Amino acid sequence: MTPTFPYLTTLVLLPAGAGIVAALVPRSLGERTQRLAVEAVGLAGTLATLALAIAIIIGFHAGDGGYTMVSRHSWVPTLGISWHLGVDGISVFLVLMAAVLFPLALLGARIRHNQRSFVAWVLLLEAGCMGSFVALDLVVFFLFFELTLVPVYFIIAGWGHERRNYAAMKFFVYTFAASAFMLVAIVAVAVIHQQQTGVLTFDLVKLSHTHLSLTAQVLLFLGFTAAFAVKAPIFPFHTWSPDAYAQSPTTGSVVLAAVMAKLGTYGIIRFDLTLFPRAVVDLAPVLLTLGVVGILYGAIVACAQRDLKRLVAYSSLAHLGFIVLGTFALTTEAMTGGVLQMVNHGLVTAALFLLIGWIYSRRGTWQITGLHGLQRPAPILAGVFTVVMLASIGLPGLNGFVGEFLVLAGTFITHRWWAIVATVGVVLSALYLLWAFQQVFHGKATEADASTPDLTWREGLVVAPLVALIVFLGVYPKPVLDRITPSVERLVAHVDRATGTTQPVPGPSHRLAVDPAVKHRSAAVAATATAMNGQSTASSSQATGSNGHAAVVSSSTTGAGFRRFP
Amino acid sequence: MIPDLATAVDQTLKLPHIDYLSILPELILLGGALLVLLVSSLRRRMMTPGAAAGWTVLISGAALIAALVQWHEVSAHGPKVEVAGAVAYDGFSVLVNVLVSSALILTALVAEGWLQRERMAGPELHVLMMVSAMGAMVMGAADDLIVVFLGLEILSISLYVLAAFNTRRAESGEAALKYFVLGGFSSAVFLYGIALVYGATGTTNLPQIANFLAQNVILHNGLLLAGIALLLAGFGFKVAAVPFHLWTPDVYQGSPTPVTGFMAAVAKVGGFAALLRVFVSSFGLLRADWQPAVWVLAALTLLAGALMALVQRDIKRMLAYSSINHAGFVLLGLEAATSRGVSSSLYYLFVYTFMVIGAFAVVGVVGGQGDSRHDIDNYRGLGSKRPWLAASLAVLLMAQAGIPFTTGFLAKLEVISAAVAAHSTVLAVVAMLSAGIAAFFYLRVIILMYVPTQPDDGAVALPETDDLGLPRFAMAGALPGTLDASAHAAGLEGAGVTADSSAGASSDAEAQDADVVPAEVVPGDVTPADVVPVGVAIAIGLCLAVTVVFGIAPGPVVDFAHKATLLF
């Protein structure tokens, strides 16, 4: 499986290298030349990364849903740290999404001073995000996960708005402190593994075979989830995010909300579910509740916002709730929807923050009440905003619908009431977004409103790919779902196997007509379970477990709710 | 030949056999110190600060090479006990030797610039530092409580003098006096601890204490426990563990900045080396008795260090509290009381030494003449005035905060691993939370250095009300300097405000303005034209290189610490 070309290592090192190059552009070139050179380096770096990400997705074969393009080198053997990178169907789209968003974020918002450091920080941030998405070694993941804080901190503090220092500090200290728990938990997993096997390693694949008692799992799960919940952010841990989103420069908001938020949700899927399946199953109701509360709370608070940027920040919180819901429903549909929703949320939020940034650059305000009737002077802006907003609301035919529908449908199977309450959030999101749209784009334009210029060609060029992707994923998500599903099935099977629960398989009436990718899935779960036997990662004891499990799956095709082994 | 002579004397006086290689670095430093002292008294003119620093670098370089030879020897032949059981010659002691000689080289480079700037003739500074460093080496190698005490006193007495070295500043003398009084008190406590341990076990030799404890079960061990407690208090003072830390901020603040860096690095290395050896190897069997005490000590040290640093406005006091926080992390390794714990503590000390010397070197440069500019407001806008200096400090502070891809992160990872492996998970969580708190004050300095003074990038003029702006104006009047200067400064600030809000005057303009006026009034004002002395630049560069290179490729240092512990 190991390709000759180290795609993933390059994916991480390329933006980092470009960042260093950008930082070294000499000041002696003169302000204008330096600025152009820096922008060129930034654009070249991010576009090259995008090209690499596209190459990765072209070369990516879903296969059995395991990790591909693995590159694995010993790094600090004494400490058991290895440079272990790999992608599967879950991470590959996040990589692609990040790679798409970074050049757009750089192009979409021009900053007026210190371009050199700004571009360098953005590139370093891209390296950090990419590294987090592809790392399969816990310490390497943590390194990149923490590394992302530094550029974001400087981006907010250096180029943010009025209360930037406060926001930057709050962001950093919140996330840094939360990561403290994760670091201890990472070390604890490795230590327990070492006590069991005598091998000190932080390798995710090896650690996933560690036998942990339920108490240990719950504690460690809480340690990991503390960091992820703050990073995402999940409901009660979100207080840093409206400040950070609102005070960031547009590029920062885009990256924070669209890419970095996914580090948290991705971390939950990748690490919590892999390492602590029993704790996940036991605590799923709690997390589901937090997700639903987040959906409702975000939506309600968003309704009360008078500031467009904060409104989008809270709507982002609400949409993240859906991802949490999809993850902890622990069904293939819901999780596939959750992963897709991560990508959708990234695209939509990025587009929203870019559009709001452009409105701000024209008018100098985010106050909804200060803007009226922009539709007439800026029809293209209004049109694009409409599409993006409708995608955010979840209109069928746009990407938000596919993700949210899968999440809700998948959740409904196992956790009916949560799904029902969450659906209210969809309605609320229509409420506040349409209200804001009405205020800003309809109504009577004042003089200032009437002279608001429309999108420039450059801005149009930036937002066009986003709109195209939003529509494409809404109309034809099959290629994406086809690649996500095997990995998700594998993960769900892993959780089922470890906990002795079975994923309830919906009867024919529950079959999801909208989703071609999951048509074959009722058989696929059983197939995956047996296919696991052949995996190099499956130990013999687990193999017997999955044999038994396959039998249970085949016998429980209609049940709703979990069935456990006695 | 020396061995022959030794045998000859041995027969008549029953002197112990001495393998001089085992104490070679100590001998080099002592001999070098005496040589420099001699030359400087006979030929005062020969010993310019530059020459003294050169000598010191050469001598400590020789000590470093000797230590590396020792490492080779120890790796090949395993640990030994030398000088009649007084000195341990093992990986642990060699690592301390390597570390102390490196610290000495760096401090000598930094001190040279300081002496030049303060126009002080100071071969004595270098001599005292060499002697003090030798004390730290003795502590690292001591295999007998009396020898530990000997090393402790050599280390401390030189440090008392060093703290008072800047005779022109009252704070320096005050710091020295405080350090001396409290240090003397703690030495007495320590000595009494030795006496009690001797009373309980009948020996002061560390391996013999361990043997005694292994062979005898002491039913009423109150005496021994009291002795251990007193030893812990004595060590706690030296390594600045809470609640024995009260001297630290005052002394760190008052001492000349290079001395502060030296103190923070070498005194801590020496203290921790002896602490680890005494507690883990001699009292290892009683760990159930002292671990809870160390647990409490570590938790207090971690939290108090981080919390108290939050409220400091003086950068040296802040770094003092941050060094207390670091001491807490090293204590984690001791609390684990395993070989992994010892190795992680050693690794932490190793990387800490470079981070702290580098940070204090930058602080010394920014401090300007007379060591007067240590308020954190002096760091405002450093990023645009002195980009390299600011970047260095930013990296070193981030390493101290434990940001990935620096040695600081791996050091924290190591001690945390050791603590978790020893089932001290709660303490590990406390430690990482304290690191989260600590990140706040490190970042506060960084944010100040890079706070852009021009308005934002928005196309429309923003209402620029920097939330850190208010304290700045308040501080303008409170800055040290005469009324004249503050009046001028206040006027300039006023002008600055209008310039800021209207045209977005760059920080450079403001800085230049500030330079023009108080140049005579505040003698040591940092100006963009100030040159960082070559020695200081080299030292900072070395510290940075160690911090970053070993942060990305930590293999060698980690292995060094591991092997040093295996050969313990």
Task: Report on this structure.
The complex is a heterodimer of chains A (566) and B (568). Chain A has 566 residues and is mostly helical. Chain A has a domain at 481-564. Chain A has helices spanning 7-24, 31-59, 89-108, 115-134, 138-147, 149-159, 164-197, 204-207, 214-231, 240-247, 250-275, 277-303, 308-328, 332-363, 379-393, 399-414, 416-441, 447-450, 457-475, 478-499, 521-531, 540-555; strands spanning 68-76, 81-87, 501-502, 563-564. Chain A has a two-stranded antiparallel sheet. The longest helix of chain A is centred in the N-terminal third of the chain and has 34 residues, at 164-197. Chain B is mostly helical. Chain B has one domain. Chain B is built from 23 helices and two strands. In chain B, strands 1-2 form a two-stranded antiparallel ribbon. In chain B, a hairpin with a 4-residue loop joins strand 1 and strand 2 (87-89). The longest helix of chain B has 32 residues, at 170-201. The two termini of chain B are 30 Å apart. Classes of the chains: A mainly alpha (566), B mainly alpha (568). Chains A and B meet through helix 5, helix 6, helix 7 and helix 14 of A and helix 17, helix 18 and helix 23 of B.
Topology overview:
The complex is a heterodimer of chains A (566) and B (568).
Chain A: H1 7-24, H2 31-59, E1 68-76, E2 81-87, H3 89-108, H4 115-134, H5 138-147, H6 149-159, H7 164-197, H8 204-207, H9 214-231, H10 240-247, H11 250-275, H12 277-303, H13 308-328, H14 332-363, H15 379-393, H16 399-414, H17 416-441, H18 447-450, H19 457-475, H20 478-499, E3 501-502, H21 521-531, H22 540-555, E4 563-564
Antiparallel strand pairs in A: 1-2, 3-4
Helix pairs in contact in A: 1-2, 1-4, 2-3, 2-4, 3-4, 3-11, 3-14, 3-19, 4-5, 4-6, 4-11, 5-7, 6-7, 7-9, 7-10, 9-11, 9-12, 10-11, 10-13, 11-13, 11-14, 12-13, 12-17, 12-20, 13-14, 13-16, 13-17, 14-15, 14-16, 14-19, 14-20, 15-17, 15-19, 16-17, 16-19, 20-21, 21-22
Chain B: H1 2-13, H2 24-42, H3 49-77, E1 80-82, E2 87-89, H4 91-117, H5 123-141, H6 145-163, H7 170-201, H8 206-215, H9 222-239, H10 247-254, H11 257-282, H12 287-310, H13 315-336, H14 339-367, H15 382-385, H16 387-401, H17 407-421, H18 425-450, H19 469-478, H20 483-502, H21 507-516, H22 534-552, H23 555-566
Antiparallel strand pairs in B: 1-2
Helix pairs in contact in B: 2-3, 2-5, 3-4, 3-5, 4-5, 4-11, 4-14, 4-22, 4-23, 5-6, 5-11, 6-7, 6-11, 7-9, 7-10, 9-11, 10-11, 10-13, 11-13, 11-14, 12-13, 12-18, 13-14, 13-17, 13-18, 14-16, 14-17, 14-22, 14-23, 16-18, 16-22, 17-18, 17-22, 19-20
